[in-house]
Amino acid sequence: MGRTVTTRELYDEIEAGTVPLILDVRNQDEFAAWQVEGPKPVPTRNLPIWMAVEQLDDVVKEIPDNTVVICAHGNGSDLLLDLLADEGRSVRNLDGGTAAWSELLVPKRLPDLPDGIVAWQVHRPAKACLSYVIGVPGKRAIVVDPARFADPYIELAATEGMTITNVIDTHVHADHITGGPELAERTGATYHVPIEDTGKAPTPFANEPLADGAEIDLGDTSIHILSIKMPGHTPGSTCISLPGSFLLTGDTVFVRGVGRPDLTGRAEELASELYHTVHDRLRPLDPRTTVLPAHWSFDNEIGDDGLVRTDLASVFSSTLLSEADMVKFIEEVITSLPSAPETYDTIRLVNSGRKEASADDIEFLEIGKNQCAASTTT
Ligand SMILES: [Fe+2]
């Protein structure tokens, strides 16, 4: 094995269960804020670089072969590799460190789609975020909830000869910086984000909010993508449907749990809207509809096929979603809320065009896995 492992190679090895140990040599507070997590559990140990150097004899004895050493940008860990190599140990360095891991996107082809349509669920493991590319080969594609890196989406669409015509954010995200406006600008696509979330003041980017029931044509007259308003997580939350097949639920419902309604400061009001969304808008849909959410919280939400998906029947089998009493539903959602990260208000302002952020700001704002779910059970 080589001395360096790329982020994608590490992801694949974690998925295959072949990583014996991740040795994270960042400081304890950086490690506590977020860690490298893949699609399967992986043994991980934190030992700050200065302690690893001080305790080198023990490290030499304790770590297994092929351990992957990680630091913030891949430099400190590389120095440790030199010291370990001098002691005859063969371990590997994560190229680019956690900064590179934060940018990793892994596209996964979605099976079981109607004829003539292709789609990918794009995983961003550092944030536990999911985005989607859906289209008709040789014709048009839409991108939903893109991360802030345009190239992978453009490249995916190109593999099937598709032109990206619509870029959609299901809501103004609070946990990550959207790539929607940039991707739309680069591809000439129309960008859509709910105006209930951005506010009515003009945004610095072009926006054509989708109305409830709006249809998007993918260039094949038999296939229409449908926009369905599902307020609750945010006032403007919108789900994207291919009727009879799947529903991109954004942060409305996840494989386990629902989107937290408190991030815009109106927890009770939006919890009540979420109740009506669940019972009036989701419940009437075909229970066999595949649910494709915008996040996961725990790796046990990732299926054996590597995809994060379920069906509406399973979503409704949870005690929370089957709760018919609105008061109890609201109470249960509100009492289950974890505290929101301090950065979330700033991220919402950036994503709605009301604040600018430098590259350093963005790296700081995006630290850590999303905390968009309420009432999530492991
Ligand atoms: Fe989110």
Explain this structure.
Helix 10 (267-282) packs across helix 12. This protein has 2 domains: 4-101, Oxidized Rhodanese, domain 1; 105-374, Metallo-beta-lactamase, Chain A, CATH 3.60.15.10. The protein has a 6-stranded mixed sheet, covered by helices on one side. The chain has a 6-stranded mixed sheet with strand order 12-13-14-15-17-18. A 5-stranded parallel sheet has the order 1-5-4-2-3. It is built from 14 helices and 19 strands. By secondary structure, the chain is an alpha/beta fold. The two termini are 35 Å apart. A hairpin with a 6-residue loop joins strand 12 and strand 13. It is globular, with a radius of gyration of 22 Å. It binds fe (ii) ion (FE2). Residues 173, 175, 251, 294-295, 370, 372 line the site of fe (ii) ion (FE2).
What attributes does this structure have?
378 residues, Oxidized Rhodanese, domain 1, Metallo-beta-lactamase, Chain A, six-stranded mixed sheet, 14 helices, globular
Oligomer: single chain
Which sheet architecture does the biggest sheet show? Answer: 6 strands, mixed
Provide the number of structural domains: 2
* Shape by Cα distribution: globular
- Uncertain runs are none
For this structure, what is the CATH class of the largest domain? Answer: Alpha Beta
How many angstroms does the end-to-end distance come to?
Answer: 35 Å
Task: Give a brief outline of the structure.
It is built from 14 helices and 19 strands. It has helices at 7-16, 28-33, 49-54, 56-62, 76-86, 97-102, 151-159, 180-187, 195-198, 267-282, 312-316, 326-335, 344-351, 359-365; strands spanning 4-5, 22-24, 44-46, 68-70, 92-94, 106-109, 118-124, 129-135, 140-144, 163-168, 190-192, 215-217, 224-229, 238-242, 246-250, 258-259, 290-293, 310-311, 373-374.
